[in-house]
Amino acid sequence: MKVLLAYKLVCLQLPRVLCTFVCLLGVWTSGDQSSDTQTSLYGVQGGSILFQLNTSLGKKMQRVEWSLDSKKSRLPLFSLEPETGNLTLKKSLLWNRYEQRAHVTPTSLRIDNITLEDNGNYKARIYYEEVITEHSFFLSVYEPILPMIKIISKSQTSDGCNLTLECQILKISNDTTVTWGSVDIPKRQEESLGLPSNSRTLNLSLPPNLQNSSVTCLAKNPAEQQNSTLKLSDACAEKSSNPQTPKSQWFIGIFLLVILLGILGIGLLIRRRKEKKKEVMDSPENQRNSDMNIQYAVLRPSRPEDQNQCQEASEQYPQEGKHLTTIYSEIHNPQIMLRW
């Protein structure tokens, strides 16, 4: 009987005990379990990004730890103690990447000169006296878009100016959008011109009264938006590109090349002829012919006074004149030739 009574008492008190245990367990775990909030951030390559923490709990902050989470592991980055200002850089594989670019405060993290490699999930864990909170930031870095309007084709008609424009973007991604618009074209006429438009290519048929207007290409992604504006009067006034221009430039280049080759050929021909002429002049046969063509002449005094002087000289030195010889006579002397 006593056992049955005890069993009934246990069955009646068991729900209260379980409820109390669950409540105590919730209170006990609330001091250690972290509350996680997710924030998406977008940055442009070369710019800065700021991770702002929510510290409105009104409790004393003991330590803040930053890490970069990957699919496989968590890579620690920084640890900051607000009271002492002691900042510790965690020796991880990414330490050198962030050492010169990161600026940490108790409530924020700023990274300068961000790159495409900085994409990822950053997590901040804040340690309070009784609770730990976590904040997650998913950073996506985009390249600059830098839109530019290019005139694809143009034609002038009696009705106005026809243009085909393209909004060119330096680096375009899947989530980059393009929108055409105008601030000085009346709203009632925008629709007839196909404005606004979300296509990268825009075809316009402009009447004369709208050729002083302008169109703007607005390109944007989650990180930034940039625009480029074109004055339609400048576009319609530009000379249309001539498709034969490249071909005519080829013809001019070939013509100049032929002239240059002709001048070089003539120069080489003249030089060759001079070299041949020099070889003929320096040949032994030509030298012998030149020697055979030497003409000898007897020099006689032309004036009577000179003749009298010569005659007096010969009469004054009659004996010496008999012994005078010439080089020619010595060469042809048989006795001298026998000596050789």
UniProtKB/TrEMBL annotation:
<dbReference type="InterPro" id="IPR036179">
    <property type="entry name" value="Ig-like_dom_sf"/>
</dbReference>
<dbReference type="InterPro" id="IPR015631">
    <property type="entry name" value="CD2/SLAM_rcpt"/>
</dbReference>
<feature type="transmembrane region" description="Helical">
    <location>
        <begin position="250"/>
        <end position="270"/>
    </location>
</feature>
<feature type="signal peptide">
    <location>
        <begin position="1"/>
        <end position="19"/>
    </location>
</feature>
<feature type="domain" description="Ig-like">
    <location>
        <begin position="147"/>
        <end position="233"/>
    </location>
</feature>
<dbReference type="GO" id="GO:0016020">
    <property type="term" value="C:membrane"/>
</dbReference>
<protein>
    <submittedName>
        <fullName>SLAM family member 5-like</fullName>
    </submittedName>
</protein>
<keyword id="KW-0732">Signal</keyword>
<dbReference type="InterPro" id="IPR007110">
    <property type="entry name" value="Ig-like_dom"/>
</dbReference>
<keyword id="KW-0472">Membrane</keyword>
<keyword id="KW-1133">Transmembrane helix</keyword>
<dbReference type="InterPro" id="IPR013783">
    <property type="entry name" value="Ig-like_fold"/>
</dbReference>
<keyword id="KW-0812">Transmembrane</keyword>
<keyword id="KW-0325">Glycoprotein</keyword>
